[in-house]
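User: Second chain of the day. Same drill as before.
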Amino acid sequence: MYIYTDFTSYASKKPLALSLGMFDGVHRGHQSIIFELRTIAAERGLETAILTFWPHPRKVFCPNEELHLLNTIEEKACLMENYGIQNLFLKEFDEAFRSLSGVDFVKEILVNTLNVKYLIVGYDHVFGKNKSGNFDLLQKMAPEYGFEVVQMEAVNIHNNNISSTKIRNLLSDGKITEANEMLGYHYPLSGKVVHGKKLGRTIGYPTANIEADAIKLLPKKGAYIVDVFLKNSQHKGMLSIGTNPTVNGERVTTEVYILDFNDDIYGEEISVNFREFLHDEIKFETLEKLIERLDKDKELTANFFKNH
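Assistant: Same format as last time:
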């Protein structure tokens, strides 16, 4: 897959089957668009492409809003490549770009620069200054500018439309199973292993503190069962998100205890996939009560992996 951060670096004039949008999460709704792009591209001799933006437009329009996303840029690019996209355009959502009208965006970017011949948009997609671009505008311009446009319907699960916002809300509620079902994969989190207070090793549960990207959405505070990926190997783990209230912690940390593992991994890159929610964050009266709960969580984690 080729990744472009600037349209001027795109030299190919091969016609494209393209879709545009944030694609946060690259969830099953997005995957249906990608599948359709690949099908049409194969039939018509086009290349597949996604045009997405960074930062999220909401960060530009509402700079003081605290917005966390389902994917980092790296995660999004990896998912796009895994799903077979050939060209990924990561366009900075800057002042010049946001000032383009819907008509100018179609003419200057989609037609003249990217040579789009087949365009797929989501069921609720708008673009251009003051949201002046939409599916109706694209339908009007398509014949004159030589491209075809289709609008994809929402994908739903259990009569519930899939959306990035809904997935964020599910994760914030600790509903990992439902979020993963909408994503079509297990929600990931990656980062470097950094030094913490090292309390865990004194009670028989040494943990790896994960320093994740600040833009990444952390699920609800609590304990989780996770897959752990480290140095090209996979392990079983239980992960805690919270402030360690039992020892009067204040800063939110993400710590994972890896079952049957004792290596020194400070400074290493680590990834986890969330599998199941165990329980909310708990403040225990004593360390002994904390250890009892950790023992129970370890047993639940081991049993989970026996059955999965």
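The mean pLDDT is 91.

User: Great, on to the next one.
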